[in-house]
Amino acid sequence: MIKEIIVVEGKDDISAVKRAVDAEIIATSGLGLTEKTIDLIKKASKNRGVIILTDPDFPGKKIRNIVSSQVENCKHAFIPRDKANKKGNIGVENASPEAIREALENARAEITDNRVEFSNEDMIYYELVGNDNASLRRSKLGDMLGIGYCSAKQFLKRLNNYGITREELENAIEKYMHDEELDI
């Protein structure tokens, strides 16, 4: 049983998460998120903690931002887009139980102090911006680090805000490079 309460978007997500783990779940009703639901999530956060697990798409990101801006001490779990895709439909409800469990195991708390481990220069050095493969590289590394896919600016913010260490990033890059060599 997972200690924290998992926040998802809708009923189909609840079913998918329940197939994967034993946990309490709160649904936001998508972007129809009400003050009453936010208050419920705040209470859950104070009592047991919450893990936000929204779809890896624009509305999911928007819901995640709304909840995390109003609720303290949220953990964030991300399912890679390719593991949440069924015939072009992207969502938690399309993820396998294994993908959901992996995302929850890799959930990360957002750090509230302004940590600056990584800079724009690091983004260039690690080839996460400024070249043809940067988007693909961020996508793969975001999945490996459990911080999801996002723009370069958001990726830098997540590296710093989710407490990723330089060693974690470099290990992920090394694994990514090794996996790329095997695909050639």
What does this structure look like?
The mean pLDDT is 93. The protein has helices spanning 11-20, 35-47, 58-70, 97-105, 120-125, 134-145, 152-161, 166-183; strands spanning 5-8, 25-27, 50-52, 74-76, 85-86, 89-90, 108-109. Helix content is 49%, strand content 10%. By secondary structure, the protein is an alpha/beta fold. A hairpin with a 2-residue loop joins strand 5 (85-86) and strand 6. It contains eight helices and seven strands.
Give short descriptive properties of this protein.
184 residues; alpha/beta; five-stranded mixed sheet; 7 strands; globular
Q: Would you summarize the structure shown here?
A:
This protein is α/β, with parallel strands linked by helices and 184 residues long. The protein is built from eight helices and seven strands, in the order βαβαβαβββαβαααα.
Number of strands: 7
Structure class: alpha/beta
Strand order of the largest sheet: 2-1-3-4-7
Low-pLDDT windows of residues: none
Helical element count?
8
Beta-strand percent range = 5-15%
- Main β-sheet, in a few words? 5 strands, mixed
Radius of gyration: 16 Å
